[in-house]
Here is the input.
Amino acid sequence: MQLGKKIKALRESKGLNQTNLAKKTGLYPSQISSLENETIAPFQDFNKYKLLAEVLDTDAQRLWRTGQQDRREWKAKEYIEKAKILKPDLPVKEFCPIPILNEIPSDTPKFTEYKFPKGTSGEYFEFKVTDPNAFFLRAGGESMSPEIKKGDLLLIYPNEKIENGDIVLIKNNKDQKKIRRITFQPDQVILTADNSTRSVIVWKKKEDMPEVVGKVMKIIRQK
Here is the structure.
């Protein structure tokens, strides 16, 4: 159930109107009304959910989680409307809200109906792309340092042609996932790190069945 519907159902079960609930929680009646009618994004502040939970006799954490999921979907719709994103099957030729993942996906992620697959932060970064399946990955380690640092946003193109020396996201059938420079050989794939402290990885095609998830096209360092 969405947050607005949940709050309305709990409020009515307590015999409260919106004004009563606002007085008991310290919120404004307009905030209660907007939440229930879904005309504003849900709160980000956990303390507001605690106030609501105390009055409505419900779990604050559960209420907060519902609110955050609704908030991510609200923001997704807001960004997409603002950017006037093109249809998924067409090349994108303007700035669009590109989803950010916090971990390497096992497969090319599908972002439909504003739902966020596992590993997705629920954030977007507006950028101009030409691959309709493009996504950002937030770098989580230092294996490709100094070019890629922890926290950098990596723009990934799943449909880009891969050549030797490219930085790619790659996985094998053991679900081992890496960001490395790639070298293809007839019977194996060699993965090297820019960080000299990391060892070279060799995946044999017959043994590990390596698969490239996407090519790193752009590195964005956020301050």
